[in-house]
Amino acid sequence: MKRYESRGKVEILLLRGDITELEVDAIVNAANSFLEHGGGVALAIVRKGGEEIQRESREIVRKLGPIPAGSVAVTGGGKLKCKYIIHAVGPRYGEEDGDRKLASAIEASLKKAEELGLESIAFPAISTGAFGYPYREAAEIMAKVLRDHDYSSVKKVILSLFDERAYREFERVFDEVFG
Ligand code: AR6
């Protein structure tokens, strides 16, 4: 575990492990535009949190259509130890405007948490699994958004890194940006 501070008042924690275990107000999911949670962290969230998360997700897409990369949708947390799941749609690595869309997905998650008046939020490394982003590039984008966000209700941001290499890459980048 490693602890940083953003803007002198917001705690940023890097943790190794499974995001579905965390007790926070909101867990961010690395979703696709159809909110079909078929693999990776999304599947882990539905497996542990229950099918209601998938059902609620489908209902959102049925009503609003697909969620574009860079945007978010919100469902309840099901059986997880969180009030909400913020489904953030990241870009696929190499797609047009990918970096901007990844930054936008992270910023939109934080904005949604502020809008809901939440204090704590946990992110996975969005787009670094099936969507192919190198950890280092994703970490640089994440660190900049967390540094520059205009915080209000959010006091604690956790980054949950699933494997050791992801953790090390994020730590290197976060040491540079926040150290
Ligand atoms: N806790 C924390 N991080 C995790 C967990 C977990 N339980 N499981 C995996 N990761 P991915 P993407 C890490 O593929 O690249 C899905 O099929 C994983 O090691 O989940 O944004 C969706 O439905 C990786 O570093 O998301 C979409 O179709 C990171 O989470 C698509 O994948 C993200 O990997 C989204 O692709």
Describe this structure in words.
With 179 residues, the chain is of the alpha/beta class. The chain has one domain: Leucine Aminopeptidase, subunit E, domain 1 (3-Layer(aba) Sandwich). It contains five helices and seven strands; from the N terminus they run βββααββαβαβα. It has helices spanning 40-49, 51-64, 98-115, 135-148, 164-178, and strands at residues 2-6, 10-16, 26-31, 72-76, 84-89, 120-123, 156-161. The chain has a seven-stranded mixed sheet with strand order 1-2-7-6-3-5-4, sandwiched between helices. Helix 1 packs across helix 2, helix 3 (98-115) packs across helix 4 and helix 4 (135-148) crosses helix 5 (164-178). It binds ligand AR6. Residues 18-20, 30-32, 37-42, 44, 90, 124-131, 160, 162-163, 166 line the site of ligand AR6.
- Please state how the strands of the largest beta sheet are arranged side by side: 1-2-7-6-3-5-4
Largest β sheet strand count, sense and barrel closure: 7 strands, mixed
Q: How far is the first residue's CA from the last residue's CA?
A: 15 Å
Gross morphology is globular
CATH level-1 class: Alpha Beta
The average pLDDT value, as a whole number, equals 98
By CATH, the superfamily comes out as Leucine Aminopeptidase, subunit E, domain 1
* Ligand inventory: ligand AR6
CATH architecture term: 3-Layer(aba) Sandwich
Helix percent reads 25-40%
Computed Rg:
15 Å
Give the tally of β-strands: 7
In CATH, the topology is named Leucine Aminopeptidase, subunit E, domain 1
Number of domains: 1
